[in-house]
Amino acid sequence: MDARNMGVGAKPGKLQFSTQFGPTNHVLAPGEAGDHAVTVTVDALDTIAAGWTPKMIKIDVEGFEANVIRGAAGLLAQESLQAVLIELNGLGARYGFSDTDIHAQLVRHDFNPVHYDPVSRKLRAIQHQRTTGNTLYVRVSADLQSRLQAADPFRWHKIAI
């Protein structure tokens, strides 16, 4: 594990983050009041994750997702990266981005939105990103499908999956 006290964005620099909203703290947009703000060092995910070969990444940055993706072009191009779980809920508008922009960026990197059924262990393509909550984007491949089918079952709240 590599924990760092920093932000992730399109390029190196510093950004102001809110501190008064608990789990919904976020990068302050231009003109947004920052009475309880903290300045945070930011770098591109490509720089932070240099040398890493993850199979999956999760991006949940309260609307700043488009900037994170811009700084992760190298990581997103890696064939080893098979999935991106990203929260899309319209908050990117505060930074001038729409969920449609983010969807298009991921599709350009050959990721497609899917629904995963853990009982059947199958992926089903969906036509567009969800409008709220997490959307799973994957590079569907025979390897990924095989891994899903071969995974050991587990119990979750007394239910075998």
TrEMBL record:
GO MF terms held by the record: methyltransferase activity
Domain Methyltransferase FkbM stretches: 24-106
Lineage top rank: taxon: Bacteria
Swiss-Prot/TrEMBL keywords: Methyltransferase, Transferase
InterPro entries reported for this sequence: FkbM_mtfrase, SAM-dependent_MTases_sf
UniProt-listed GO biological process terms: methylation
NCBIfam families: fkbM_fam
Name listed for the protein in its UniProt record: FkbM family methyltransferase
Organism: Methylococcus capsulatus
